[in-house]
């Protein structure tokens, strides 16, 4: 199953890169008007309109393959069993201290022991 997901992911990445390259190679709609008035050359490897048909059809095929790969990855991602579960789904136990203890207030430190005489002893130097 993991191998199949990796193959589909590789195919999706390759089709995405192919589509990016083909889209950047294609001429815009305004490029044909410039060639009609003499600026630029209208002749190409595929002919006057052959490159537009070939590149647009290849882009459409790559887009369809990309779409199918995306749907397959979404399907395999949603049906994969979760062995350990998500960290957000696990609930940590909440410990509630007694209301009378000094530790009940966050940041509170328990008071130091006072000698029986009531006066604090100052250490001698």
Radius of gyration: 36 Å
**Unreliable segments of 5+ consecutive residues:** none
User: How many distinct beta strands?
Assistant: 0
Beta-strand portion reads under 5%
Shape assignment: elongated
Overall pLDDT: 75
Order of helices and strands: HHH
Would you summarize the structure shown here?
This protein has helices at residues 2-25, 29-36, 50-79. It is mainly alpha-helical and 125 residues long. It is a multi-pass membrane protein.
Structural account:
The chain is an all-alpha fold. The chain has a domain of about 60 residues. About 50% of the residues lie in helices and about 0% in strands. The radius of gyration is 36 Å and the shape is elongated. One of its GO terms (biological process) is protein secretion. GO terms for molecular function: protein-transporting ATPase activity. This is Protein-export membrane protein SecG. It is a multi-pass membrane protein. Keywords: Cell membrane, Membrane, Protein transport, Translocation, Transmembrane, Transmembrane helix, Transport.
Please write out the topology.
Layout: H1 2-25, H2 29-36, H3 50-79
Helix pairs in contact: 1-3
Keywords:
mainly alpha, 125 residues
């Amino acid at each position: 199953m993991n191998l199949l997901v990796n193959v589909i992911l590789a195919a999706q990445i390759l089709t995405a890169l192919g589509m990016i390259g083909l889209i950047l190679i294609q001429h815009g709609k305004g490029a044909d008007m410039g060639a009609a008035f003499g600026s630029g050359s209208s002749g190409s490897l595929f002919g006057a309109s052959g490159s537009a048909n070939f590149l647009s059809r290849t882009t459409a095929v790559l887009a369809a393959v990309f779409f199918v790969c995306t749907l397959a990855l979404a399907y395999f991602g949603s049906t994969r069993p979760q062995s350990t579960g998500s960290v957000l789904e696990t609930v940590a136990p909440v410990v509630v201290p007694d209301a009378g203890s000094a530790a009940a207030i966050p940041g509170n430190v328990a008071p130091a022991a006072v000698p029986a005489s009531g006066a604090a002893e100052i250490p001698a130097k």
